[in-house]
Amino acid sequence: MKEMKTLIDWIKESKRIVFFGGAGVSTESGLKDFRSVDGLYHETYDYPPEEILSHHFFMRHTEEFYDFYRDKLDTRKFKPNITHFVLSDLEKKGILSCVITQNIDGFHQDAGSQNVLELHGSIKRNYCMDCGKFYDEKIVFESEGIPKCSCGGIIKPDVVLYEEGLDKSTTTKAIREIAQADLFIVGGTSLNVYPAASYLGFFQGKHMVLINKDQTSYDHKCDLVLHESLGKVFEQIKKEIQ
């Protein structure tokens, strides 16, 4: 496959790769995404999932929020896949500078990646809204009702809900990483979520690559597009980049 050879050549030539990933990176571990035909947004609940995962719903219906959160967002029984591990290997080789992810599962760190920018936060971090004390995911997923801090305050997942802004420090670092990359690989994302999708405009390097099963509105802006599964592509990368 000509496109695959081109990608491998670009990786071998590169000195500073940045990878930007969406839900498609983790669905190959068995997780459901949100927007696909069989994703969470197409399931039926008492409230639309978009509303349940909003700031106002969390504040007004905290117990119902946690019922949904525990049922649908506990990823602890799932594991990183080939894409996560190959990205970690590329970082260890010194050619991948950073992973920027829209996912909240923490799989990149589980696979060994060090420089990971989580645009939408992580289920692995949770904090007290009163005193700011941090907790791991067990406090949420292994409790009932509304999880409470030792001080009595309500614990909130450190994830970006609808109506909440992205962390400015994280977004600043992400934009800087993209602007300094010579190869920018975008994978497993429909690029429909803003402002994250707009970050592609900050790339100034040699080649921008898009790997996604379906077409996106950004296909024509990329130097190379592979409509393949990430697992298949990164399995080949693993074989070629020793």
Could you characterize what this model shows?
By secondary structure, this protein is an alpha/beta fold. It has two domains: 1-30 and 80-120 and 165-242, 3-Layer(aba) Sandwich (Rossmann fold); 32-74 and 124-159, SIR2/SIRT2 'Small Domain' (2-Layer Sandwich). The chain is 33% helix and 17% strand. The protein contains ten helices and nine strands. The strands form two sheets. A six-stranded parallel β-sheet has the order 3-2-1-7-8-9, with helices on both faces. Strands 5-4-6 form a three-stranded antiparallel β-sheet. The longest helix has 13 residues, at 168-180. Residues 35-39 have low confidence and may be disordered.
Write the layout of secondary structure elements.
Blueprint lengths: L1 H12 L3 E5 L2 H4 L21 H4 L2 H6 L1 H11 L9 H11 L3 E6 L5 H4 L5 E3 L2 E8 L5 E2 L2 H4 L13 E5 L8 H13 L2 E5 L19 E5 L12 E3 L3 H11 L2
Parallel strand pairs: 1-2, 1-7, 2-3, 7-8, 8-9
Antiparallel strand pairs: 4-5, 4-6
